[in-house]
TrEMBL record:
Residues 1384-1403, 1475-1485 have a biased composition (Basic and acidic residues). SUPFAM superfamilies: L domain-like, P-loop containing nucleoside triphosphate hydrolases. This is NB-ARC domain-containing protein. Signal peptide: none annotated. One of its GO terms (molecular function) is ATP binding. CDD domains: RX-CC_like (cd14798). InterPro entries: Apaf_helical, Leu-rich_rpt, LRR_dom_sf, LRR_R13L1-DRL21, LRR_R13L4/SHOC2-like, NB-ARC, P-loop_NTPase, RX-like_CC. One of its GO terms (biological process) is defense response. Residues 478-549 form the Disease resistance protein winged helix domain.
Length: 1485
């Protein structure tokens, strides 16, 4: 293994020297400040001598010389280390012997590498010896005897090299030098945030930033050019990219431009690369494999047409006019007002872009010279300001360092990149002496491009932390503009010996980011932001910083272009240690040109090629091998593709990335790679994983993600005892984990998307160090093992979309360190264990779309949650304790039961959390429209009502909704009922049509819930044709009462849509392929609710509506259809777990339902049928639902007997029969439903008798007989129901007594009796002995217990339990309740006269009393039944007519139109002057 590196050199020839000595004896030692020599002395002289001694005894003829070689090597290397600092100082000062000193240092480092290679080779040989039989080794390429013969000779040769270098150093008069001291390393704090970098990078650039914003946002329809190019020109390091980014990330940019993209161009101008980057930013799911430039241009034309975009072309160097013209042709298709920002170092690039056909036609060209941004250097004061932001805290004393700091700021030369880097190193040593050394240090790099800037950057490198220098220099092994994940970079550093572990790697990354030597990739920052601060980041670096790293690494790094023979001839360099192989196209001989001592090899830009079997036979010292840049690697055999056989000869290999290569298995001898630490095989074609991988005792990082054919892991997988990271996401065929899964070091485990994984091993709790666990989309996991609760260090747990999960262990609360728990879309999870309330470290709890959880633990308020999401759930009420959760900062409730929705709003008020802002548009007495007042409103939830009152479109534009990124829930309401004649004329003339208004109310991109009600136009604005790019974050979409609309936008393209609600859109008759757009699949859609879609005839579930296409709604959890009598799904319905059909007879029509292809976790398990008149043939369709566990029949007229098809529900656990007025008999085959646990019979008045066969239902636990007036006796077989726990009898007047057999029901614990007076009386008196054994008996309760309520919920919708009672939009329902309350307030005002607002308590009591009567009268179904709502409205209007007389209707229309004008309303009710704003607002609410 490599040792830590520790050298403070500022040039390639004196960089850090990585040596590998301590690991030979199995002990790692931290390198101190004493450098190379001390490590050699301690590691070789004290530790390795014993191991080498064993080798000496076997080599008798060389024994005495071998010991002498080791001793001499130790002494010489110690001497050399003592003088290399003198060489460093001489070289930095550019003395007369500068070149000679440079060569000496290069040789010194080369010998150090050679020593490490030999000793690592020795260690690898010893490891291999332990892992294989001796006989097998003897006949292998790794013959031990041969190794032991050659090793002493290698050491002897190295001794000679070291002595030679020592002599040369003496000839150069190099003397011992003191090491440079560093400041304290305690309490280190590194700037690792991109926000800080942005803040520092724009100091002194306020004018330029404001100018760019103005140029981007000032849209002039009469502008000469269609698309403007905004150039930012300046020298390297002046902050061009940072300035562009500081503007690019503003919310106003995201909201003003439909499309944003960032492309790092660099010197390598590649139109294909630019086109792909832009397309990926627009549509990340688009497939661009093997796309020609023409295809890319066609796709860009299609994606950009009619859309306003903002594209940044960063670091553009190309000056060829023809190439730049083709670039402009690629970008010309955006709509007018699109912008391109170009950052470049050369004004000539801008001048060239101002030429050509497109520029002369003013289609796309740079802005005038006066508007172009030319960056100059910063002043010394600005540089010092940048340095202070990095160096000091807000309260630090700067007085004693201010003067020296300003002197150092002068050395920055006005370059912010240098100021940031120097500020970081200065923050590490905040002493006068240390800063004086920095001030007095000078660097001379001789003649080269950007000499001054690079010398200033070199100064910051010279004072960089020693342990991070080699990590930085290694970045030169990547091409300019590279992007790499932080976790993979850390693993490569670790493989090369520069760091010890992940934590140290994170420190290094944060340190380099603090210096701006590393940056978060702009493109990755745009696509998404990590949820957790320690999530892997995609990193890149500034070109100038890359130049610095290249200078430092010098001859150690080369780029070998396989298509250029000249570069191949130059490749044989003695000092090269890192290589890139590019443009490989089966030039097999190129591998002979690779230097034999390279330590890392990256194959790039070598698509679809084969690597020869002996590709790595000459490069046996490789530690890092990255083959991810070549798409096909292996043998010519088409059926079995393997890695090149020479791979297994790389004994020192520690990092192998073979991702995306179609290899089907690993070589049999893969276990010989005993030093392997990181193995990345993601998105390969692995079908099996042999046991040989289990012999890799040092393996700590294993990535197998995306191997969709892999079905299992090796049985001996638990032997990987050092494994820390395991990613098996999207291994969709994985069925099980090994029974022994005790990986005691494992910290990160990702099993997301393992659809076939059925359970976790029983010893899963032995993963004691596990911190991160992702089980999302594990469809078949139903329970977690009891040992799961032993994961007491777990911090992040994701169980989202675990469809089959039914319960959590009771001990779940033992996960005391858990901080984030995601249970989104676990529809079958019935409850949370009480112990959850003990998880005091839990910060985020997501219960959205949990359709089975009816209540939360009462003590849930004891948690210290910051985020709680219960959206689209089935909760019936909220515990009072939540209102005491002071830690809560975000409470998300987008839809759900109305009661819960109301309780949530009250809790938000109590906790002072942001609530919903309601604004009803009206004309003010001054003549202005109230909608303009929303321009200054910022809130999270916003409802804009009465949009029909907008009379001028410019007023709607004033709102600037797309700038309001804080708005996450938006409801837009039109009330066409109260439009006056003037408004109707304007709408007919299309002046203020709903479409025109909606065109100007484009929401911000991060909107999550979107509701539209009462929309009156036939079509939708153009932006909704590209709704997926405008609203990519929308999860909930509701459309209600769209009377004129006859076609829907492509809502199926919304990438995150989880809930879709459509109601009362009468003119939509078909939903076909246009709904999905191009490439749209509703993979995340979980809830689909369609109501009162009277004329909807077809909904295609494939693009063609036939069975030959991809199923487009594959993961639905709940399908609710109400009053959709004509609807048919073609070729078959969505794959839903829960079904509710109400007056939707045709939904099951079709040749097949398509369920035969589904996994068991996706099969239907609950169904409710109501008001459906099925013919016998349609009933037979239910044969395809054999997996149903709950089934409900309600109000199906003409049904005299249950259909035989129900007997095929062999898994049925709950059966509900309600309001079946014609039902006369229950069939004998009920006895075959042996799994039945709950039976509910309600309002079946003609049912006379319960068949004796029901006595065989021995699994029955709950029996409910409600309102069955025809039943006259309880049969004797009742006593055979041995598992019965609860018995409910209500309003069954003809049942007069219990049978004697009820005494046999020893398991019966609860009995509820009401509405059967004789039965109640006898059970209390003469027959009391029959029920005396029952623990809980309740007679005639005032309110029927929850069980009955539950049945009425089932009768109404199944949505009360399954989120179905809230199928209707909560915003709409609340508005209707507000209208009802308004009528009440009329009476209230009349009663109290002038002072209603003062009598708050009395008013509240009256309001609550009125609401109680209203709900009691109309029931919870009030707002679900359209007819009842219309009756209520008529009653309200009659009351108003009576109150206001003949002018009441005019007054009503006027007041509805101007609901927000409370001055007039106050005057009418004589409530006092308009200044009592608070009282008026209370009355309005």
């Amino acid at each position: 293994m490599p040792l830590r590196t520790c050298c403070s050199s500022s040039l390639p020839s004196n960089s850090v020297f990585p040596l590998s000595l301590d690991v030979v004896v199995g002990e790692r030692r931290r390198a101190g400040m004493s450098g190379f020599g001390e490590i050699i002395a301690s590691a070789v002289g004290k530790q390795i001598a014993s191991k080498l001694g064993e080798l000496v005894t076997e080599e008798a003829t060389l024994q005495w010389r071998f010991r002498e070689d080791v001793d001499v090597m130790v002494d010489k290397m110690q001497d050399l280390e003592a003088v290399w600092r003198d060489a460093d100082d001489k070289l930095r000062r550019r003395g007369g012997d500068g070149e000679a000193v440079r060569r000496w240092l290069t040789k010194f480092k080369s010998v150090a590498y050679d020593v490490e290679d030999v000793l690592d080779d020795l260690e690898a040989t010893e490891l291999l010896k332990k892992s294989q039989p001796k006989l097998k080794l003897f006949f292998s390429w790794n013959n031990q005897i041969l190794q032991r013969v050659t090793m002493p000779h290698k050491l002897k040769n190295l001794r000679g090299e070291i002595e030679k270098i020592g002599k040369e150093g003496h000839d150069l008069n190099l003397v011992r030098n003191q090491e440079r001291a560093e400041g304290s390393r305690n309490n280190e704090t590194f700037v690792g945030s991109s926000d800080e970098g942005l803040k520092s990078g724009v100091v002194g650039r306020d004018m330029e930033k404001d100018k760019i914003i103005r140029l981007l946002l000032n849209y002039d329809a009469n502008a000469r050019e269609d698309i403007s190019i905004v150039p930012i020109v300046g020298l390297g390091g002046l902050g061009k990219s940072t300035l562009a980014e500081s503007v690019f990330v503003l919310d106003k940019m995201a909201n003003n431009f439909e499309v944003r993209a960032w492309v790092h161009v660099s010197k390598e101008f590649d139109l294909g690369k630019i086109g792909r980057a832009i397309l990926k930013s627009i549509n990340s799911s688009i497939n661009l494999d093997n796309c020609s430039l023409q295809v890319l241009q066609e796709n860009l034309k299609k994606e950009l047409a009619g859309r306003r975009y903002l594209i940044v072309l960063d670091d553009l160097w190309e000056e060829d006019g023809d190439k730049l013209e083709r670039l402009k042709q690629m970008l010309q298709h955006g709509c007018k007002g699109s912008r391109v920002i170009v950052t470049t170092r050369n004004q000539s690039v801008v001048n060239k872009m101002n030429t050509g056909v497109l520029a002369n036609q003013r289609k796309i060209c740079p802005v005038p010279n006066s508007d172009q941004i030319n960056l100059c250097v910063l002043s010394t004061d600005d540089c010092w300001e940048v340095m202070k932001q990095t160096t000091f805290g807000p309260d630090d004393d700067k007085s004693n360092l201010e003067e020296i700091g300003r002197k150092i700021a002068e050395k920055c030369g006005g370059v912010p990149l240098v100021a940031i880097a120097l500020g970081q190193v200065m923050s590490e040593v905040r002493t006068v002496e240390a800063w004086q050394k920095i001030r007095d240090t000078n660097i001379d790099l001789g003649h080269r491009d950007h000499k001054d800037t690079l010398e200033r950057l070199m100064l910051s490198y010279y004072y960089m932390k020693l342990e991070f220098k080699m990590c930085f220099a290694y970045l030169a092994a990547f091409p300019k503009g590279f992007v790499i994940g932080s976790d993979r970079l850390i693993q490569q550093w670790k493989a090369l010996g520069y760091i010890h572990g992940g934590d140290e790697g994170k420190r290094c990354i944060n340190y380099l980011m603090g210096m701006s030597f590393l940056q978060i990739s702009k493109s990755s920052a745009i696509r998404s932001s990590p949820v957790h601060a320690n999530a892997p980041r995609e990193l890149t670096m500034h070109d100038l910083v890359h130049d610095l790293a290249t200078i430092i690494l010098g001859h150690e790094c080369l780029v070998l272009n396989a298509t250029e023979p000249r570069s191949r001839k130059k490749a044989k360099r003695r000092y090269c240690r890192h290589a890139q192989l590019i443009n490989y196209q089966n030039q097999y001989k190129v591998f002979n040109d690779l230097p034999g001592n390279i330590r890392s090899l990256h194959v790039r830009h070598s698509e679809k090629q084969l690597l020869p079997q002996k590709a790595f036979s000459r490069t046996k010292y490789i530690r890092v091998l990255d083959l991810s840049g070549s798409l096909v690697v292996g043998q010519s055999t088409p059926r079995k593709k393997l890695l090149p056989s020479s791979t297994i000869q790389l004994k020192l290999l520690r990092y192998l990335d073979a991702s995306t290569l179609p290899i089907t298995s690993l070589p049999k001898s893969f276990h010989t790679l005993q030093n392997m630490e990181t193995l990345i095989l993601s998105n390969c074609s692995l079908a099996t994983l042999s046991n040989s991988i289990c012999s890799l005792s040092k393996l700590s990082y294993l990535d197998l993600a995306g191997n969709a054919r892999l079905s299992k892991l090796p049985d001996k997988f638990n032997l990987l005892r050092k494994l820390i990271f395991l990613n098996m996401s999207s291994c969709s065929k994985l069925t099980k984990l090994p029974d022994k899964f005790s990986l005691e070091c494992l910290e990160h485990l990702n099993l997301s998307g393992c659809h076939e994984l059925k359970n976790l091993p029983q010893d899963f709790g032995n993963l004691q160090n596990l911190r991160f666990l992702n089980l999302s989309d594990c469809y078949k996991i139903s329970v977690l093992p009891e040992s799961f609760c032993l994961l007491n260090h777990l911090k992040d747990l994701n169980l989202s979309d675990c469809r089959a999960l039914i319960l959590l262990p009771e001990c779940f609360g033992d996960l005391s360190e858990l901080e984030s728990l995601n249970l989104t879309s676990c529809p079958r999870l019935a409850r949370l264990p009480e112990s959850v309330c003990k998880m005091t470290n839990l910060k985020c709890l997501n219960l959205s779309y949990c359709l089975g959880i009816l209540e939360l633990p009462s003590s849930v308020g004891d948690l210290n949650l910051q985020i709680l999401d219960i959206s689209a759930g089935a909760l019936r009420h909220l515990p009072d304790s939540i209102s005491e959760m002071a830690s809560l900062t975000q409470f998300v409730v987008t839809s759900g039961h109305p009661r819960v929705f109301g309780e949530a709003q009250e809790i938000k008020k109590r906790l002072k959390l942001p609530g919903r802002t309601v604004h009803r548009v009206c004309q003010r007495p001054s003549g202005s429209n109230s909608i303009v007042e929303l321009a200054h409103v910022n809130c999270r939830e916003l409802l804009i009502g009465s949009l029909q009152c907008v009379e001028k479109l410019k007023d709607a534009e004033t709102v600037k909704l797309r700038h309001k990124s804080c708005v996450r829930q938006l409801a837009l309401h039109w009330n066409k009922r109260y439009m006056n004649a003037s408004l109707k004329r304007k709408m007919i003339a299309n002046e203020c049509s709903a479409e025109s208004i909606l065109e100007r109310l484009i929401p911000a991109r991060n909107l999550e819930q979107f509701m539209i009600q009462g929309y009156t136009s036939k079509g939708f604005p153009n932006w909704m044709s590209h709704i997926s790019s405008h609203l990519p974050s929308v999860t909930y979409l509701s459309l209600f009462d769209l009377g004129a609309c006859d076609n829907l936008p492509p809502f199926g393209q919304l990438p995150n849509l989880r809930s879709l609600y459509l109601q009362k859109i009468p003119n939509v008759t078909k939903i076909g392929k246009e709904f999905y757009g191009e490439g749209g699949t509703c993979t995340k859609l979980r809830l689909l609710q369609l109501k009162s879609m009277d004329n909807l005839v077809e909904w295609w579930t494939t693009l063609s509506g036939k069975e030959d296409g991809e199923f487009l709604i594959p993961n639905l959890h709940n399908l609710e259809l109400k009053d959709c009598p004509k609807l048919k799904f073609l070729p078959y319905p969505p794959r839903s777990m829960f079904w509710f059909l109400d007056n939707s007879n045709e939904a099951l029509v079709g040749p097949r339902l398509g369920f035969w292809e589904l996994s068991s976790s996706s099969l239907p398990c609950r169904m409710g049928i109501k008001n459906c008149l099925f013919q016998p043939g349609k009933w037979r369709r239910l044969e395809q639902f054999p997996t149903l566990e709950e089934f409900s029949l309600t109000s199906c007229l003409g049904l005299r007997a249950l259909r035989d098809v129900i007997r095929c529900f062999t898994s049925l656990k709950k059966l509900s029969l309600m309001s079946l007025e014609d039902l006369e008999i229950l069939p004998d085959w009920l006895r075959h439903l042996t799994s039945l646990q709950v039976l509910v019979i309600k309002d079946c008045r003609n049912l006379r008798i319960l068949p004796a066969s029901m006595g065989n239902l021995t699994a029955l636990r709950v029996l409910m007989l409600l309102e069955c007036k025809g039943l006259d006796t309880l049969p004797q077989w009742l006593g055979q129901l041995s598992s019965l726990r609860e018995l409910h009898i209500r309003d069954c007047p003809n049942i007069t007594c219990f049978p004697d057999s009820i005494q046999n029901l020893t398991a019966l614990e609860e009995l509820y009796l009401s509405g059967s007076s004789l039965l109640v009386r006898r059970s209390r008196r003469e027959n009391a002995y029959k029920v005396s054994h029952i623990r809980k008996v309740i007679f005639e309760p005032e309110e029927e217990p929850n069980e009955e309520q539950g049945q009425e919920e089932s009768q109404e919708a199944w949505m009360d339990r399954l989120l179905k009672i809230d199928g209707e939009n909560p915003w709409r329902r609340r508005e209707e309740r507000e209208e009802l309350e308004e009528a009440s307030m009329d009476r209230l005002s009349k009663k109290y006269g002038e002072g209603p607002s003062r009598h708050r308590e009395e008013r509240q009591e009256l309001k609550e009393s009125w609401m109680d009567r209203l709900w009691k009268k109309y029931g919870e179904g009030l707002l679900r039944h359209r007819e009842e709502r219309e009756e209520l409205e008529e009653v309200r209007m009659d009351r108003l007519l009576k109150l206001f007389g003949g002018n009441a209707r005019l007054i009503e229309e006027r007041e509805e139109l101007e609901e927000a004008s409370m001055d007039r309303l106050s005057k009418r009710y004589q409530k006092g002057p308009s200044r009592h704003r608070e009282e008026r607002e209370e009355l309005e609410v």
